[in-house]
Design a protein that fits this description.
single chain, mainly alpha, two-stranded antiparallel ribbon, 7 helices, 2 strands, 4% strand, globular
Length: 224
């Protein structure tokens, strides 16, 4: 059983690239997760929780420490998001999907400023974590500035998604673009391919949630 969680335990080879059981199963679970969230389906949360556990183990083994911590955050917020979506689901909607909301422009500026400041601090911390905790992180973090910044952006996007805010998709689109390059560079192309699919799904999610928002605004206007 423990061999499943070893990145060197290869499931199959694709175009000369060995894909581990860990990477393959984690990729499939996370792919299903993002497809479901674009459709506002609450099952995105339990499936996502399983996926982030596997990706957390994977990223730790390839020294992407910010991404490792990111999966811990996703695990915690996955549980919270599951609860929040279940509690706030639109019971008047025939498909029982959650209602989409949007931020004010002031709120969006505050989010951008917070992301920028936190990214600087996270980059500094990530660059030094192997000296602070060598017993846990024996090797220096790979590409700490890029890894830290995309992680902070992902944290913000995940929270906005939990709150059903439309703006979460803009952050996910930016994160996915960088992640495709990052994981290809780190020689995990199956994960890079996953994030390319994530990018397409994020574009779809933005379109779908925007359409839902416009429809809900039209209904409110008719009732006014």
């Amino acid at each position: 059983m423990l061999a499943f969680f070893n990145v060197n335990n290869i499931f199959f080879t694709f175009l000369g690239y060995p894909i581990s059981y860990l990477e393959f199963v984690g990729t499939i679970l996370n792919l299903v997760c993002v497809i479901l969230v674009a459709r506002r389906n609450i099952l995105t949360w339990p499936i996502g929780i399983a996926g982030v556990v596997l990706f957390g183990v994977l990223f730790y083994q390839i020294n992407l420490y910010a991404d490792f911590f990111e999966q811990i955050y996703y695990f915690i917020t996955g549980i919270m998001g599951w609860y929040m979506w279940a509690r706030l689901a639109n019971k008047n909607d025939a498909d029982d999907k959650v209602i989409v909301e949007t931020n004010t422009w002031r709120s969006n500026l505050a989010w951008l400023g917070g992301i920028a400041l936190t990214s600087v601090v996270a980059t500094w911390a990530l660059s030094n974590i192997h000296t602070w905790l060598p017993q846990f992180f024996a090797e220096p973090a790979a590409l700490p500035a890029i890894d830290a910044t995309t992680t902070v952006m992902s944290f913000a996007a995940q929270y906005l998604m939990m709150k059903r805010k439309l703006e979460n998709w803009y952050l996910w689109i930016a994160v996915d673009i960088v992640a495709v390059w990052l994981y290809w560079y780190k020689q995990v192309p199956f994960v890079a391919l996953l994030y390319l699919i994530f990018l397409g799904n994020a574009l779809y999610g933005l379109w779908a949630w925007q359409r839902t928002t416009l429809r809900e605004q039209a209904c409110i206007a008719e009732e006014a």
